[in-house]
Amino acid sequence: MQSRLVAYLDSVKSRDPAARSRWDVLFYPGVWALGLHRFAHWLWEGRLYFLARLINHLSRFLTSIDIHPGAKIGERFFLDHGFSVIGESAEIGNDVTIYQHVTLGGTNPTTGEGGKRHPTIRSGVVIGSGAQVLGPIEVGEGAKIGANSVVTKDVVAGSTVVGIPAKPVPVEAVHYSPGFMPYGTPCGEDCDPVRARLTELEHELDQLRSELKVLKAARQPQPKVKSA
């Protein structure tokens, strides 16, 4: 138990440059919210719904993080800063990082559809602050969701999506921090898919102009050489 706690604190510390020690991490609201959720989820699985909800409300009061007791969360989950909402049927894999003001929301309950209503987040995913991931979609392993993005469709494993609605970044997303991208948002290049596409079109247009110039030059009549 102690070794698992130490490993968890170290995993959080490795993703947060502001953490000076394990003691710093131990007082993070996300750590407390996860610990209380583990207990609430155990009660929920035992059909002690009232007690599970009671722990859930206590956790939300103390940490400003609302994790439904029914949500399934894997190992080494890091919720930085807090103020986030995770729905009942959400599933989160291992080594997932979520920043503040993120919602893992469900579909409209008026449709009468029960069961799976919230996202499935695979291992190694990073979700930036303010992002909204909605519906029973799947975010593939190692994917990154940029800050303030709205995701309503499946995200391919290893990809980076940004915008409203979220779209894949058409440029290489590895920048000054290879291996882990804080806030899931590329900062070392133009990550706007529309602007990036416009840049590609401008480049193609320049190439066509150069080729057209060569063709025009080739079609120009050559001066006749007088014979001696």
Structural account:
With 228 residues, this protein is an alpha/beta fold. It is built from 5 helices and 15 strands. The chain has helices at 2-15, 22-26, 29-45, 49-63, 193-219; strands at residues 66-67, 72-73, 78-79, 85-86, 91-92, 97-98, 103-105, 120-121, 126-127, 132-134, 138-139, 144-145, 150-151, 160-162, 167-168. The chain has a 6-stranded mixed β-sheet. Strands 1-4-7-10-13 form a 5-stranded parallel β-sheet. A 4-stranded parallel β-sheet has the order 2-5-8-11, with no helix packed on it. α3 (29-45) packs antiparallel against α4. The chain starts with a helix and ends in a 9-residue tail after the last helix.
Distance between the termini: 101 Å
Largest sheet, if any? 6 strands, mixed
Give the ordered list of helices and strands.
Answer: HHHHEEEEEEEEEEEEEEEH
Q: Can you list the strand order of the major beta sheet?
A: 3-6-9-12-14-15
Shape: elongated
What proportion of the residues is helical, as a percent range? 25-40%
Mean pLDDT: 83
Count of separate DSSP helical elements:
5
Which regions contain 5 or more consecutive residues with pLDDT less than 50? Answer: none
Bin the strand percentage: 5-15%
Radius of gyration, CA atoms, in whole angstroms? 25 Å
Total beta-strand segments: 15
Report the structural category. Answer: alpha/beta
